Amino acid sequence: MGLSMIAYIYGSVDEMFLGTCKTLLEGEHVTYIPLSEMHTAEHDRFSHFMVSGTLGEIKEVFAFAQLYETSVGIVPLPTQKNLIRTFALSSKIEESITLAKIPAEQKIDLLYCNDNLVVQEVVIGDAPPLDTYDTALGQQNIFNRIQLFFHILRKVRKLRHTRITLTDENEQETKVSAVGLVGVEYQNGTFASKLITSQINAADGKLSLLILAPLSMLQYMGYLFRSLVSRWKSEQLPRSLGYIRSSKLEIKTERPLEVLVDSEIRSETPVLLRSTKESLRLSVGKMFWEKQSKDVQGKNSFKIDHLPSDEESASYLAKAIPLFNHASQAQYAALFSSLREEGQLNSTFMILLILATMIATFGLFINSSSVIIGAMLLAPLMQPIISLSMGVLRQDSALELSSAKTIVVGVLSVLLTAALIAWFIPMEKLTSEMSGRLFPTTLDLFIAIASGVAAAYAKSNEKISGSLAGVAIAVALVPPIAVAGVGLGWTQWHMFSSAFLLFMTNLIGIVLAAALTFVVLGYSPLRVAKKGILTWFMIAAFVSIPLYSSFEQMKENIAIQKSLSNIHFTLNTQEVVLTHIQLIEQSRKLQVRCEVIASGRLSAAEKKLLKEVIEKTIGRKADVIATFRYRL
């Protein structure tokens, strides 16, 4: 009897599968050994092992092969799809046997959780969907993906942060607050491994640990949607995740967290994760080595600076993950101090505001948009408005009163300055820059809301605080007050009220939107903010009534302009076309300004008839101011 070189160790496999393997290995020098007899077999007779069985049984053979420094190959069961994917094996039994019977020369690392071998992953706490294989989405349509998104979202609502202490092999201690961790050694097709593909190498002696630490439900929902529904991929790690790469990590938690190894072995923290470098010669597919990152070095890597680690954040997140981000005490103190200072009335504020008013008013008279933009940049009125929004949010009466006082004094100063300039200038002509601020609609409210969001976001982030200048241009606070002041100087109350309504629209939209943005950014819990926000919602709803009316009027005017511009008619023998049509509402009377192009000169009777045609088209009486061009 010849010397057998291969031992086929089999565990829980059915006779048909084993029979197929024996048939395919017929003629090879193979000895078949039940797993129960593995330790009593003459191991020194064999230069290579083959194995089939459950994942736990395969890990037993791994340990046996490592002990006697023998290579091993896996013949996976058809149901072991994740194992096949992890080691790039074949799902066809003929091909898997061909690969498994060839002794491996290259060694792979092994990952241990305490003394338990980890082949696929170790999950500590809760980490959906990091512990999910992306093969679960492979054949799913968009509706099934959305269903899975909401299924996991229900789990996320129950997540709670726990203080976690991580100690590496250099005794470097790191503290974070997180809901779960996932450790992997190989690129195995889980969401966790796919997020850090560039950091995984199966022969560098390093394990990879992903840390799930969402600061808000919205933040994590964004990652879930991107992972499960959207097909857009990014190489940047999501903000709700951190990452550590090390050869050893001791993990301690404030409260015990469940530990799950390869979905089978259950225990609790504390645990020790360690990677043993090049410990096992395993026959793997060619694709396995192609997936290993060539860029990683042997050094440890930490990407956890953005994760919550301070005592305040940990305590807050341990109760429940909030819907919105929660700003830290340091962030809130810095922003609140800045807003309190900017809400104060002082000489610098008044000087800049009056100068901006003068520039804006002169720009309105000379009809120069560039001069008016310069005034917008100079005017400091946005600062106390943002301060007022924080006072509304936090129900801080001192900040609200201080900011409101600054705004009221500032607005009165602008009105008075503009009125005086209008009174002294011997010219009463309504320019297009003035008339453009006399018809506020709901669109202006939407602009103010968007500007308020942008202003609050820019104010909360020092890196983009310079963007406030752009917001000031977009929302234009001083010019409408200056137009209202000009209306006072001319004693035109309709002009004053219309322009002042535009300013109030901007003020209300900014305060409301900025307050909501600060809530989202975590500067106040919703239970504190809701009273002030509801109050300003009602104010915005009240202001929306005349704005909606103006919007409907604007739609009507556009329809009228379109109707008039389509008029091609004959007055007696003259062909007439209307162009450059403008509609202006003045004291409840419509003024139609247009250019009339006629094939010949129009008589007084024809001009009267033209006015009647225009009034019949628009369905109401109107003042028609026309300039005539003749094609003679």
Average pLDDT metric: 84
Biggest sheet overview: 10 strands, mixed
Q: Which spans of ≥5 residues are poorly predicted at pLDDT below 50? A: none
Multimeric status of the protein: single chain
Report the helical percentage.
40-55%
**Secondary structure: number of strands:** 21
Write down the overall geometry. elongated
Which structural category fits the helices and strands?
A: alpha+beta
Gyration radius over CA: 37 Å
Gap between N and C termini: 120 Å
- Number of helical elements: 21
Residue share in β-strands: 15-25%
What can you tell me about this protein's structure?
It is a single chain. With 632 residues, this protein is α+β, with helices and mostly antiparallel strands. It is built from 21 helices and 21 strands. The strands form three sheets. Strands 1, 2, 3, 4, 5, 6, 8, 9, 13 and 16 form a ten-stranded mixed beta sheet that branches. The mean pLDDT is 84.
Compose a concise summary of this entry.
With 632 residues, this protein is of the alpha+beta class.
